Amino acid sequence: MLRYPKSGALLRELFVRLAAEIPWRQESIILYGKCHMQPRLLCWMGDPECAYRYSGILHKPQPWHPLVSGIRAHVEALAGARFNCVLLNHYRDGQDSMGFHADDEPELGAQPVIASLSLGAARAMHLRHRRDRALPTQKLVLADGDLLVMRGNSQCDWKHAIPKSRKALGPRINLTFRLIRFPSLT
Ligand SMILES: O=C(O)CCC(=O)C(=O)O
Ligand SMILES: [Fe+2]
């Protein structure tokens, strides 16, 4: 885990501006044939070729917001890797969440580097091994300014999630930077 090189006051300012200026959307997902709203706000941003197919729909990325390109430059330097897109997630309170998944889309190639910056309220990430059920779930607290870099076999070996919390938690914004190596052309 790395730290984003900004003071608490600057992190707070980043949070406030991102919350106000990003075109957040609440998207639906189809689960077992039923349409559900995702329990968080999100925004897909990146280079124009970074469209991705999800639930049968081709999602075009939003163009880079200058604030987010600035963050990307810092994150690339810290992670020592290059990124061409980012998924921004806005968890409004402890009831917003993300289910267990791995970021293992074929477009990302084998052993992708994924850099995830957290701003605002601290949330726990749970990590579950994909094959070895005897391994206990690992819990990682992601606090304001934490930069989690996942590399190597992390996506093929583990799934991760941000579970709901019963505690009254403030809002959190997470930026997950990725590199799409093989854009799907359809
Ligand atoms: O909010 C987080 O820390 C996790 C986000 C995540 O896993 C993702 O965007 O793929
Ligand atoms: Fe993820």
From TrEMBL:
Domain Fe2OG dioxygenase intervals: 82-181
Superkingdom classification of source: Bacteria
Gene3D superfamilies, sorted: Alpha-ketoglutarate-dependent dioxygenase AlkB-like
UniProtKB keywords: Dioxygenase, DNA damage, DNA repair, Iron, Magnesium, Metal-binding, Oxidoreductase
A Pfam match: 2OG-FeII_Oxy_2
GO MF terms held by the record: catalytic activity, acting on DNA; demethylase activity; dioxygenase activity; hydrolase activity; metal ion binding; oxidoreductase activity, acting on paired donors, with incorporation or reduction of molecular oxygen
GO biological process, one term: DNA alkylation repair
Keyword Metal-binding listed: yes
Cofactor: Fe(2+)
The protein's name: Alpha-ketoglutarate-dependent dioxygenase AlkB
Lineage of the species this protein comes from: Bacteria, Pseudomonadati, Pseudomonadota, Alphaproteobacteria, Sphingomonadales
